[in-house]
Structure formats: structure tokens, C-alpha cells
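Entry 0007
Protein: Cyclopropane-fatty-acyl-phospholipid synthase
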Amino acid sequence: MHNIYDNDDFFSRYKEVRLNPTSYNEMIEVPRIKELLPNLYNKTILDIGCGMGQLVQYMLEQSPIQITGIDISSNMIQKAKENIQDQHVTFLNNDFMEFDSVADYDVIVSSLAFHYIEDYKGAVQKVYNHLKQDGVFIFSCEHPVATATRSDDLWSHVPDMYDHYKLDHYFESGVRITRWLQQDVMKYHRTMEELLNTLLEAGFRLERIVETGNTNLSLEFMNHVDIEKINHRPSFVIFKVVKE
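Output (C-alpha cells):
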């Protein structure tokens, strides 16, 4: 898994964005993740790429037995431990692909981490192996329409009221380098077909796909330019699958 979050300058800029209550995460992705979560009472949960622990904090309010948060970034785990001290929560600074647990989980979640994983098929199989029977896996990643282009300038400035997002090289899966927060960030583009079929081939049953658009929060708090950009194309996709 690619780790840029232990670059201290980048992480400082990232915190400003991520902790902004009107960020795309908080307005667009997080509300939809929360909608998909099952009843967490008395459940065991693994959060892959737990970051600073925001989703862990939310899930903790639903009285699970145990939550394990794992993140490759030591900066993320340090902040998560500062934010949450609870006997029902354990944070681990580790790469999920090297993670080994004797425990199986009722629920595994991951928010915007899987587009940093090179071996997607291996990661999906690992999740499957760590879930209990009928366990639930929910994860989000950047939408393939958003990650496909190889262009440095993501928006096409044609004569129109609004800019248009570029879509090219869609069927060419692989590495994408994106300029974000003054840094080159490496991610992995995969088609919707690859994302979904890999889950099915691992043995999961699909329960729900969400392509994120505007939410009540974004419509209330975002400006009209951002609202139109969100309407133009989905930023994220969220999968909810069940182990059979």
C-alpha cells in the first residue's frame, strides 16, 4: 500500500482538508458510508486505513465488542490514539497486506484507502478470509470515472457555464499520479468491472453499490460551483458486500 501520509508537510496540509467539516469526505462520502453500516451492537469490527479515527469514533457510539483500526501511516495512528482512548478500541500501525490476525470479524470497513493498494485482488481475498460467515464488508474508493484520466489538468475548460471533467484511458488499469496538496500522489485506477467482479469472484454477494452525488449536507453547506461539480460526475463509489 502506498503511504504518503508520513510526509509531515503533506500530512499537515491533509489534516486541514480532512478536518474541515465541509470537505468532500464529510459532505459526500461519510454520510453514505454511515447509511450502509449494519447494526454494530456486540460486533467485532476492523477498519482498514482508519486514518485519524473519525469513523472508529462514530462506530464506537453503537456499542460494538471491539474495533481494530489499522493504518500504514504512523502519523495517522498517532492522531487516532490521541483522539480515542477506549478499552474497546485497538489501533495498529501496519500495512493491511502484511496484517495477520487470529480473529475473524463481523464487519470490515474501509474509507478511501483501497485506491492506494496495488494488489486489489489479494486485498479483497484477505478481507474475505478475515470475515465471519455472513460478515459484511463496506469500502469506498475514488470512482473510476474520477481516476481514469492521465491528464494533469482534470477539468476541460470549454466555453460553457461549467467546466467538464476529463474522461480518458478508462480501460487502462494501473498507476495514476495525481497532484494533490502540493505533492505527487500515487493511486491505482481500476474499472468498475474490475472492482465489482473481483468481489464476486472472491465469494462475496453484492448488497449495494453507491455512486456518490450530492447529499442533504452538501446541498445545504456547499457553494453552487462545488454542487455543480458533484452533480457532473461521481467522486466516490461505495460497495457493500456479504460473505457467503
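Curator remark: The CA atoms of residues 68 and 85 lie 12 Å apart. The longest strand covers residues 131-142.
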